[in-house]
Amino acid sequence: MNTMTTRNGLNLEQMTETVGALSADPSLAQFRFRASNRWINGGANRSTIKGFYGAGAEDTSRTTPFVFTNGEPPVLLGNNEGANPVEFLLHALAGCVTTTTVLHATARGITIDSIATELEGDIDLQGLLDLDPDVYAGYRNIRIRMDIKADCSDQELDDLLAFAREHSPVCNTVCRPVNVVLERGKVAQVSAA
Questions:
Q1: In terms of C-beta density within 10 A (0-12 exposed, 13-18 middle, 19 or more buried), how is residue 97 classed?
Q2: What is the average pLDDT score of the chain?
Q3: CA 95 to chain centre
Q4: 47 with 37: CB under 8 angstroms?
Q5: E-strand spans in the chain?
Q6: How far does the chain reach from its first CA to its final CA, in angstroms?
Q7: DSSP 8-state symbol, 130
Q8: What angle is formed at CA 185 by the lines to CA 92 and CA 77, rounded to 5 degrees?
Q9: How far is it, in rounded angstroms, from Cα 101 to Cα 170?
Q10: What pLDDT is recorded for position 2?
Q11: How do strand 44-49 and strand 36-41 relate by DSSP bridges?
């Protein structure tokens, strides 16, 4: 009989085993995620995500790639082929902060009843279009509003959210300078099948 214990949809035994394995062998914590992208036309392009390296091996659990179409709204010369990349960044940030919150709530013994999040980001397109050299091309501000209900005090929730902000990989990447290298080179053909 399976007596798996879960909290917030996470298997507590598996979580303990994973943390123990990573603590015992920090090399297993080294992951390399990958995405490939092909331009379609105008502001439309398509990203494909399938394989990654982690826990000491190439992952083979995904048999079908995830495919995401990036587009632009008409006001930005597109045809609404998909969300635009800065909107995908908000999606990635929301997903990562939420997952990090759930993971660490679980580790702290907090049961979450619900989480709903809204994000807004402010961009001045003068930076993208190089109309003003003093205007930064990316988001100037991002606001995350999280409505979270859980079986703990408001102070515990505030502490959890502060911790999640600091330990979410996407939030941490957005909140600090990260080295990004953009170079020319051959790219393998990718199938979106």
A1: buried
A2: 93
A3: 5
A4: yes
A5: 6-7, 10-11, 32-33, 36-41, 44-49, 52-54, 57-58, 66-70, 112-122, 141-150
A6: 39
A7: T
A8: 50
A9: 13
A10: 55
A11: antiparallel
Tokens representing residue 182 in the block: 């953009």
22 three-class SS = helix
User: Residue 89 corresponds to which amino acid?
Assistant: L
CA nearest to 125, candidates 94, 83, 84: 84
Q: How far is CA 144 from the centre of its chain?
A: 14
Q: Angle at Cα 176 formed by Cα 130 and Cα 126, nearest 5°?
A: 15
Q: Which of 148, 138, 139 is nearest to 118 (CA)?
A: 148
pLDDT digits 0-9 by tens, 103-133 = 999 999 999 999 999 999 999 999 999 999 9
Q: Cα–Cα distance between 81 and 79 in angstroms, integer? A: 5
Strands 6-7 and 36-41: unpaired
- 31: tokens are 């992951």
What is the CB neighbour count within 10 angstroms for residue 89? 19
DSSP 8-state class, residue 176: S
